């Protein structure tokens, strides 16, 4: 007898009790349940890749909201795939050991000593997320370079050291994990042909995953409201050519460049839409998927 995890996924058949069923587990500070029903049909059974990083991982209240959102997606019949960063946690560890971080184009130069620190921090975050999901009766599976690795990389450049770019995703293993009803929780690290570990930019890793499984949505949680225009106002929607233009005229700059380039690449390779949202806002994932207003910046073809 199969244990019923993510208790009782609600039936998707349109019936008068659907909104009542949703209300039973819907967070009070989430979007209005009036709008939810029409979006359930749209996303039912769809794969949604969510990348979380920044303050979400260090703030237990925000992390708890995100975990709750993922559990709700599962109950509503969606297939969430979670990939986490760890930049701020890595910075904390390096600072404590007086190791200075140097970056090239938003990517951290990673030597042999540093890759061990990166791996330890990532595995810690991974465990925390997996445990938090399991606590809410949601089956979760850790995917790290030690356990169930699915990311295979090549070196990004000699100067960056142990920083890799995804070359291949083991889709077969990922699909097997999803089929068994687990939420995959993935660290942004990969192995090269010789089995050496490499750090991968979490946005880049999320983009590679979303492309490989042609997910309906790729959601990047950040510490900003989305893509900002010249007046520092969040742009609610842009297409890929407008996004390129904003990079060229330097409106998009710094750490937002790899993010937006990942978005463009994902959309050009089968992902329906990508959204950059503010992970510091409670239940931002639910607001993005299940409300008319959405949240952050939506990028599509």
Task: Tell me what the structure shows.
This protein is α/β, with parallel strands linked by helices and 301 residues long. Helix content is 39%, strand content 20%. The protein is built from 10 helices and 14 strands. It has helices spanning 18-25, 33-43, 60-75, 87-96, 112-135, 171-179, 202-212, 240-248, 256-267, 284-290; strands at residues 47-52, 79-84, 103-104, 107-108, 140-143, 151-155, 164-169, 183-186, 189-191, 197-199, 217-222, 237-239, 273-278, 297-300. The strands form 4 sheets. The chain has an 8-stranded mixed beta sheet, with helices on both faces. α1 crosses α2 (33-43) and α8 packs antiparallel against α9 (256-267). The longest helix is centred in the middle third of the chain and has 24 residues, at 112-135.
């Amino acid at each position: 007898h199969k244990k019923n995890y993510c208790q009782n996924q609600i039936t998707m058949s349109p019936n008068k009790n659907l909104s009542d069923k949703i209300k039973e587990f819907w967070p009070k500070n989430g979007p209005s349940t009036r709008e939810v029903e029409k979006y359930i049909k749209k996303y039912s059974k769809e794969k949604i890749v969510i990348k979380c990083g920044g303050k979400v991982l260090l703030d237990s209240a925000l992390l708890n909201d995100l975990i709750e959102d993922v559990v709700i997606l599962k109950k509503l019949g969606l297939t969430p795939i979670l990939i986490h960063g760890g930049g701020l946690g890595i910075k904390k560890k390096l600072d404590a050991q007086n190791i200075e971080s140097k970056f090239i184009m938003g990517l951290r130069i990673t030597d042999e000593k540093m890759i061990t620190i990166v791996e330890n921090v990532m595995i810690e975050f991974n465990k925390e997320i997996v445990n938090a999901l399991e606590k809410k009766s949601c089956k979760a599976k850790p995917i790290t370079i030690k356990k169930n690795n699915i990311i295979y990389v090549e070196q990004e450049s000699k100067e960056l050291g142990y920083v890799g770019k995804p070359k291949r995703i083991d889709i077969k293993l990922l699909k097997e994990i999803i089929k068994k009803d687990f939420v995959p929780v993935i660290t942004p690290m990969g192995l090269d042909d010789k089995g050496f570990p490499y750090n991968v930019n979490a946005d880049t890793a999320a983009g590679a995953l979303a492309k490989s499984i042609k997910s309906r949505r790729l959601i990047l949680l950040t510490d900003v409201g989305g893509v900002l225009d010249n007046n520092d106002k969040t742009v609610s929607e842009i297409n890929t050519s407008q996004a390129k233009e904003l990079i060229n005229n330097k409106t998009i700059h710094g750490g937002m460049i790899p993010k937006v380039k990942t978005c463009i690449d994902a959309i050009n390779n089968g992902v329906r839409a990508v959204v950059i949202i503010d992970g510091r806002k409670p239940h931002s994932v639910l607001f993005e998927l299940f409300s008319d207003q959405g949240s952050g910046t939506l990028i599509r073809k």
